[in-house]
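Please supply some protein, with fold tokens.
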Amino acid sequence: MKVILLLSLVLFLGFSFPKEQGFTQEDRERLIRLETTLKVFMEQVDKRFEQIDKRINDVNKRITELREDMNKRFELVDKRFEQIDKRFEQINNELNRLVNIMVGIFAGQIALVVAVIGFAWWDRRTIIRKTKEETFEDMERELKPEKFKKLLNALREKAKNDKELEAILKKHGLL
């Protein structure tokens, strides 16, 4: 590239001067200075390009490092989310277990209430039955046939004035 630029400059300068006069010593010195200046300029430009290339490479390295760092961070975030998901699953399982325990306790309490009510109903029936039996036995012991006849006669006399009592006695065949 340098050579092409230098040759094009020499050709340009060579065609720009009239052919009859030729090059003077002053022209030659000017060309040498120009060539030296161009060489220095081209070296500086090359250095600048090298610096720019180096900076671009540095920027590319930084971008690559940043990408790798971001990828690592995303992986860490993904792992963290996986841990959070596992924790939610554990909490969900624990809640399900607690709900099952609570349902079991509730069902047990309902069973106890039903058992207590059933026992109370059975006990009441048993007590009433025994009480009736004992009452009839006591009545039979205390009511001797003479007392029973007197009681029946008293009820029959009362039934003459009381229509409702008369209906009851007739219904049971005591009138």
About this structure: Helices lie at 2-16, 25-142, 145-161, 163-171.
